[in-house]
Amino acid sequence: MVRLAPIAASLPATVPFVGPETLERQAGRPFAARLGANENGFGPSPRAVAAMQAAVPDVWKYGDSLSFDLTRALAAHHGIRPGNIIVGEGIDGLLGLLVRLTVAPGDVVVTSDGAYPTFNFHVAGFGGVLDKVPYRNDAEDPQALLDRAHQTGAKLVYLANPDNPMGSWHDGAVIEAMLDLLPDGALLVLDEAYAEFAPASAIPDIAADDPRVIRMRTFSKAHGMAGARVGYAIGHPDLIAAFDRVRNHFGVNRISQIGALAALQDGDWLAQVLARVDAARQRIAGIAAENGMAALPSATNFVAVDTGRDGAFARHLVDALAAQGVFIRMPGVAPLNRCIRISCAPDPELDILAQVLPQVMSTL
Amino acid sequence: MVRLAPIAASLPATVPFVGPETLERQAGRPFAARLGANENGFGPSPRAVAAMQAAVPDVWKYGDSLSFDLTRALAAHHGIRPGNIIVGEGIDGLLGLLVRLTVAPGDVVVTSDGAYPTFNFHVAGFGGVLDKVPYRNDAEDPQALLDRAHQTGAKLVYLANPDNPMGSWHDGAVIEAMLDLLPDGALLVLDEAYAEFAPASAIPDIAADDPRVIRMRTFSKAHGMAGARVGYAIGHPDLIAAFDRVRNHFGVNRISQIGALAALQDGDWLAQVLARVDAARQRIAGIAAENGMAALPSATNFVAVDTGRDGAFARHLVDALAAQGVFIRMPGVAPLNRCIRISCAPDPELDILAQVLPQVMSTL
């Protein structure tokens, strides 16, 4: 048989996430409400839709290997230089490349216990050693992350702000202060996938050339283009340039580049989506309250709902909702796993949630 | 500054290919004829175009992490089981994953000097040691590859059949015979990106469960969907399953999965494309002959044209054509680099080639 390399041979066969289509096939029918993957059912900008549809016949061409037009537009949008930006196949893809660039086998990476599993998948996948600190008050704990980074000599420190799966957030000033307290040579991986949904005060003011941090952004969430696989990282030009050493140079879909550019230019649509997401957050909180549960504050397009019980109860609830056609997810570790996580969505899907949840609760 | 991991720190900043859009930006104007990247200007199936356009509004959903429908259809198409197939972000992406799975730092990988640079990029990128054998009669040399694999204890042996950049091919029986002569534990990486353009006799009859080989196929070439980033590998189920340990599970674009499925189901369109490609090969050979050059036989959607001179002449020719708006490429090493490589394309683009080439030749 094929001889796998030692790291690959040591990896488990488990995968970070089971997708909703997989669950639908297992159940033998589609979900009526798709509220589990923090997708944005309000959809992409109509201008992005039109641009992508118009781009389809030209898909015989490879995409631009530099994502030049999109990178320039992003630089203008953020008021930084193109050399501070690398576009890639979603934050998932970029996190993998970043870990590959920085983590040698045995290197320590610090994150929070219950934070983004796909990041952990990449760290393990390159032989890194994960060191996890607990959440504090349902939020990632900057001081604990810093303390552990100093204790371990961590290469990377991962923090999502706002956080997934809890929807909590820190003030941007807290993130800025973290940078001065990082150990020398450690890099803060600031996952800002949900930044557009957060209050402006949650976004730190960090120079794009700051070598202590790399920020991750995406078109999968606020821009409603998860299936298009476009994300980008902002960082020091030397670190950004290093991605060229390892990335799949023609890997970003041609149609997606064009769609992302159009989405970026449609600020009116984004503003509408953000308003709808905010309304959906409030509606989900109301549905939770009607069922005796408490929504946690959210700066994202999902709401963590505290069941007031434990992880076993939340798991029963998730499974029972799935059996009734409602797809949600839940945090993976205690004490976060007393919660369920419900993605914002248009009213027809939340109507289904509102109808099904009381029935399910009455059976548990 | 950020401490790169040792392998990443050792890698050069060079990239495998400069894309046509980059060249266009350098020149300040678009190419009139895009004949350099072995794209398929006859385009995707109209059914695939329609399916992708219809899929655009739903791009807010992540793609199916298992590419389930496409994988099942591919299995039926090839008469094998879904467990023999992994769908990924083009052959480029799958080659990277394969190298990561199998090549530890210092492991030897055997390929041909002048064969696919992106494969070499991945091998170097994971710390593998490339050992190259020369082409023989403008074709990859199976016996030399086998001999070197035995001498070095190679983990991987790369062979493209048909070959890129020369367009040459071996009979399928030659590939089949190679398997019996591989060293124990070596894996043949059989890149069949151009298989659909080749005579049926060039396709080896290999059991999908054979653990000695992994075959790579793509929707980028015959199916005209290079910008969509969909390829697949066929191999032993244990090796195919190992991709799950390292791949970006939600990395395959949702629209692309749907488009590839539609393309696969449109055999009539594929047959038309293959006929047009064959006509274009003949026309390119005629244009070459009119200009005192000899087209090599091709089993691909491009034609290597022997200039009868050396690499410096071919480079001048490529550059002079680019200056006149005609994008082609050329092999990177001697003696292959006495040739230029011209991709098949619809007549309007070949008209431009036919018009510009004599002008350029007269100036050299």
CATH level 1 name of the largest domain in chain A: Alpha Beta
How are the strands ordered across the major sheet of chain A? 2-8-7-6-5-3-4
Instruction: Tally the helices of chain A.
Output: 13
Structural class of chain A: alpha/beta
Q: Which fold does the CATH topology of the largest domain in chain A refer to?
A: Aspartate Aminotransferase, domain 2
Secondary-structure element order of chain A, as H and E?
A: HHEHHEHEHEHEHEEEHHHEEHEEH
Q: Give helix % range of chain A.
A: 40-55%
What amount of the residues of chain A lies in strands? 5-15%
- How many beta-strand segments of chain A? 12
How confident is the prediction overall: mean pLDDT of chain A?
97
Termini gap of chain A: 49 Å
As a whole number of angstroms, the C-alpha radius of gyration of chain A is 20 Å
Pair with the most extensive interface? A-B, 85 and 85 residues
Estimate the global geometry of chain A from the Cα principal axes.
globular
Instruction: Indicate the low-confidence ranges of chain A by residue numbers.
Output: none
How many discrete structural domains of chain A? 2
Organism (chains A, B): Paracoccus fontiphilus
Keywords (chains A, B): Aminotransferase, Pyridoxal phosphate, Transferase
Protein name (chains A, B): Pyridoxal phosphate-dependent aminotransferase
Pathway (chains A, B): Amino-acid biosynthesis
